[in-house]
């Protein structure tokens, strides 16, 4: 068995070295130099396995050496062991079979954040705040979140037995839930912020994202939408074809959305908006931040370059490397960088990655690495990044490449205080809200926090041993701290009573980037009018600045 795994592991390494399953025959066509090098490698693996001072498997040796090899290429080429590869493919699907709950770890416990309406979990009456204590008799306190989710998933129509602990119940509640198909939506939220402003939040780009966005736009227009806010914050990307499909709903038909350029001839391609969707043609604002990367940078870059909307927030991550995923032997995969992304104006999205340390610790807002002052290896923090090469939008606005997408209007979020961060990390607002809503059921979406709620929360913090009475009184003394805490409690009570959308609606009222974006719709309206003039043969000159800053 050991020899079998050794041969399998080495075969896997050879296939990975030859750039994945597409190149199986090329393994036989390696040069003499490559064969000699691989012979040294096989000897090294054998010696390390047989003579190392502790037990070590061939699998660990080979997987670690693959990761080391790929680190010499770029930050985003990656080897995917079978479990990771399977998980990636599942995330790209439009549905899976399970219970229909959003779960997370709260205070060390597997907790229901929100049941999804119309799913097995919601039909059985599962609530936000329910703690799943066992799955098929196994305690969840020793499971990772991924392990627990894997156990909850399964074939359609099969049962999973769980035990939940709920505040207000003296005994755990045993439930048998029949798994069903659960839509894996990437448009997490789509609703009207006010009578005319639509809001769409896209979490990532998977198989159905384009059609989800189209459906959301149709629904919101039917509800009276006259302008749209698209939230791409913390959207780390996904499938290229879906980014193209989404961007194609906002830019003129036939417009270039993105271009890929690589070493091989077939890696140089230009992608344009098709006629599958009609252009939105409404004032548009797009929210971005440091967590906006890859496919979401393609969308925001195309919208900015074609002057069909304003980009607002903070500079994006700057991930513009094209990963082609290849299937390897034994259920593994390889995400190999094969090209780079360029926006319609010709901007390179990818940031410099000469230093991996600086790449992963770089803060695009301050222009500095976020680690220790010496970078951990004696290297000084890099100076603030100077603008790269200048490019121009369709209307002539200056934009810059080589560092992600720079917003048209820069709006930074305020930092939370250490005490607020502590309360968030301990899920204090969530836990108190669940407890409060159980005792005082909220039946109206117009519910407002009553007088004395914050005092009740302060007493609860002391009862739960999360703080002392003196510390709570000191920390909640300022109007800003009281407003922040009351808003968080209100949002979590809305979530417990009505779900994630109502939670977001409450938080949106104090989200500085959303509120600033709402003020910018007159500018977005002007920009769209200039775009229309250009399309009808008018002048190619925008009065709007290339970038402004709104810091509070």
Characteristic terms for this protein:
seven-stranded mixed sheet, 552 residues, disordered C terminus, Pdz3 Domain, 4 domains, five-stranded antiparallel sheet, 2-enoyl-CoA Hydratase, Chain A, domain 1, 36% helix, globular, alpha+beta
Can you tell me about this structure?
The protein has 552 residues and is α+β, with helices and mostly antiparallel strands. The protein has four domains: 2-72, no CATH class; 95-183, Pdz3 Domain (Roll), CATH 2.30.42.10; 187-410, 2-enoyl-CoA Hydratase, Chain A, domain 1, CATH 3.90.226.10; 418-510, no CATH class. It contains 18 helices and 24 strands. It has a seven-stranded mixed sheet with strand order 10-11-12-15-16-23-24, sandwiched between helices. Strands 1, 13, 14, 17 and 18 form a five-stranded antiparallel sheet that branches. Helix 1 (2-17) runs parallel beside helix 3.
List the helices and strands and how they pair.
Layout: H1 2-17, H2 32-51, H3 58-70, E1 78-80, H4 82-91, E2 95-98, E3 101-106, E4 109-115, H5 120-123, E5 131-135, E6 138-139, H6 145-152, E7 159-165, E8 173-178, E9 180-183, E10 187-192, E11 197-202, H7 209-222, E12 227-231, H8 240-247, E13 256-262, E14 269-272, E15 284-288, H9 295-305, E16 310-313, E17 321-327, E18 333-342, H10 356-361, E19 362-363, E20 368-369, E21 390-392, E22 398-400, E23 409-410, H11 418-425, H12 428-439, H13 453-463, H14 469-475, H15 479-498, H16 500-508, H17 512-519, H18 521-535, E24 548-549
Parallel strand pairs: 11-12, 12-15, 15-16, 16-23, 23-24
Antiparallel strand pairs: 1-18, 2-9, 3-4, 5-6, 5-7, 7-8, 10-11, 13-14, 13-18, 17-18, 19-20, 21-22
